[in-house]
Amino acid sequence: MTTKTYQVSRRTLLSACALVTLGMGNAMASNWPDKAITLVVPYSAGGPTDVVARLLAVPMGQVLGQSVLVENTVGAGGTIAPTRVAKAKNDGYTILIHHMGMATAPALYKKLPYDPLKDFEYIGQVLDVPMTLLSRKDFPANNFQELQDYVKKNQEKVSLANAGIGAVSQLCGMLLMHQLGVNLTTIPYKGAGPAMNDLMGGQVDLLCDQTTQTVPVIKDGKRVKVFGVTTPERLSSLPDIPTLNEQGLKGFDVKVWHGMYAPKGTPKEVIDKINKALNVAIKDDNVKARIADLSSDLVSPEKATPEGLRKHLTAEVARWAKVIKETGVTAE
Q: Which fold has domain 36-128+256-327?
């Protein structure tokens, strides 16, 4: 019997391996999902981002045919959750919902464990959320002019809560102090929920927070005072509340946007399936009604795409790097 020897080039071998890997990836994507998906939230339960995540989870799960489980991974100013997702297996079973903290983190942290522009696949934008400036119910000021006068005369006595180092509420508060020319005592919490609880309980004086959490409390009218909204235009759900811009803080504009991400290398077919579920969810009647009640705006179909989120995040990283440098905000 004659034995034949075949020589296979390294390039041919690598190509064959690549085809096998691609075939396995395509097979995995076609069968995906066959178990529950984890939607990671960087902040505590009950906070604004958590509210949005839980609203979307049910209709997304119905489209995907599997449960979407919300997991609150809290800490380090919202950087632990994206770090976890960036390092997760890129099979689509671990995804992230995060607000504009994805854009501010590179400028806030000297050593960030992930790169928002390189370590993720983009699924799509979700919604935009205005913010409001609140105080405890018995705070001495009754309008924004009185607030400005009081904090300038008593800044060493006034406390300003936020949802944690690097959170949007911290950035909003720092911008407020910068434009008022004051330096208040800032108190970071492990999420917006605990910060709001202490504000309503009278343990802290001021808080800048998203309408997803503040509108119900404002409309209740018994537990907080409201001094203005952070967007250039008034809110349809709070038409009598003036903007900070119209009350003298010219150019003050903070609107929180949210996006959804997956680990880098997640198959395109899987991203497409998640994106389809996201787009169905943001058109769901219950989701639209709840988001409208919270004075937030679901994004257009053009923004709820991987490319829409990529473009927006890239622009926002550049924008906030400049703002953070000018205001001196830092997380370290």
A: D-Maltodextrin-Binding Protein; domain 2 (3.40.190)
